[in-house]
Specification:
The chain is an alpha+beta fold. 30% of the residues lie in helices and 25% in strands. The strands form four sheets. Strands 6, 9, 10, 13, 14, 15, 16 and 17 form an eight-stranded mixed beta sheet that branches. A five-stranded antiparallel beta sheet has the order 1-2-3-8-7. A two-stranded antiparallel sheet has the order 4-5. Strand 2 and strand 3 form a beta hairpin. The longest helix has 24 residues.
């Protein structure tokens, strides 16, 4: 099984290339293509994880379809048969890993919701007893469930790292009314998705959403509630007080930590065993959530 790490569609204008996704401009629509690239410590690895792009794309589709009653989204179709004629010669490449979407004006903030204390949130809490600058009660352990999910926005940086900002700072960027809507919708989406995921044996520890505007309408865009934009933990193995296993880059990160590598490009090659274990975790996340095997 070969990983798809390089994507080119000759004759079609590439709008943007991200760590994982390629975006093509089709005039009145965009084509999103999820590659199998994997990054760790902000470095793209030379080896990809087979089927990872399809998992991310189809999990996003799964959630877009289930959250339309909360907020509209940019998805038009993931079925290659619905794509414009110009894309038909690339059917095999696009199958399962691409999404035709509406064009939207990207809002320059990331909407992060945290339900558990882990990562940068845990570090901040240890240091100051706060998360996103907001005080929390004492007594939480690492990976502990927060009494109520917390909204902690950040800037959306084209280059370098996003920066955490306060809710007031976010409202200064997008306006009071829109900022409040972003917070309310993000919390609602997270709580709904986290409750559903838990019934499937997955703890959704945190997630990030991105939004855009089409005219005056707020819509959900990019990927949504995937193992790359969220932390997924197996509920059966969860125990607060330590860093839980996860459904995403766990094996890759753990392996890289054993190397004498300074976490700057280029990234080291990944052993077959690490690639295969990571692939299994992504596929498992898809099948648990959707109740189906990924059709590849």
């Amino acid at each position: 099984m070969e990983a798809v790490t390089k994507i080119e569609l000759p004759g079609i204008e590439k709008f943007k290339s991200g760590k994982v996704r390629e975006v093509y401009d089709l005039g009145d629509q965009y084509l999103f293509i999820a590659s199998d690239r994997i990054s760790a410590f902000d470095v793209i690895m030379p080896d990809g994880i087979p089927n990872k792009g399809q998992v991310l794309n189809m999990i996003s589709k799964f959630w877009f379809e289930r959250t339309e009653d909360v907020v509209k989204n940019h998805m038009i179709s993931t079925d290659v048969n619905d794509f414009p004629e110009i894309l038909q010669p690339h059917r095999e490449l696009l199958k399962g890993r691409s999404m035709l979407v509406k064009k939207a004006e990207l809002l320059p903030v990331e909407c992060i919701v945290r339900g558990y204390l882990i990562g940068s949130g845990w570090k901040e809490y240890q240091k100051s007893g706060t998360i996103g600058g907001m005080p929390l009660r004492p007594g939480y352990e690492m990976a502990g469930k927060i009494d109520e999910p917390i909204f902690t926005p950040s800037t959306k940086a084209d280059e370098g790292h996003d920066e955490n900002i306060s809710i007031d700072q976010m409202k200064e960027i997008v306006g009071d009314e829109l900022g409040q809507r972003l917070m309310d919708i993000s919390l609602h989406l997270y709580k709904t998705a986290a409750d559903f995921a838990l019934t499937k044996g997955i703890i959704m520890a945190d997630t990030k959403f991105e939004f855009g505007m089409i005219g005056d309408e707020l819509i959900l865009i990019d990927e949504v509630l995937t193992p790359d934009s969220s932390r997924f933990w197996p509920a059966a193995d969860y125990a607060p007080g330590s860093s839980p296993l996860s459904f995403d880059k766990q094996f890759v990160r753990d392996y890289l930590e054993t190397l004498d590598w300074d976490k700057t490009p280029p990234g080291p090659s990944l052993p077959t065993e690490i690639i295969e274990k990571s692939r299994e975790k992504y596929l498992e996340a898809y099948s648990l959530l959707t109740g189906e095997e990924l059709s590849v």
